[in-house]
Design goal:
Helix content is 40%, strand content 9%. It is built from 4 helices and 3 strands, in the order ααααβββ. The radius of gyration is 14 Å and the shape is globular. It has 116 residues and is mainly alpha-helical.
Amino acid sequence: GKIGVGYTVINRVSIAQARGDYWWGNTIREVCLKPYQYSCWNANDPSRAVIIAVRPGNRIFDRCLVIARQVIDRAIANPVRRSTHYYATYIAAPDWTRGKNPYVQLGVHKFYENIR
């Protein structure tokens, strides 16, 4: 799931650059911090405080850093193809999934292509 989520960010950057449409952002940072796109960065999301406070040495954080580097370097296979969206199945399906079929499910995450 972490690899897939990472590739949704990369896919958004790649698609935006190819189309010249930077609604999602032109960089990894801009895509990640776009309001209401990756909920963990939203000011009202409880996970945001955890992410801001975490430091190297935390086993999960350190693993996420390794995965992020592998995704950025394309050193690990892209399991979500051109997916730009996902959601975790332990929450209610977002409205944007209505009438759409996921490309793939990895663990608790469903990944979708051609969402805009």
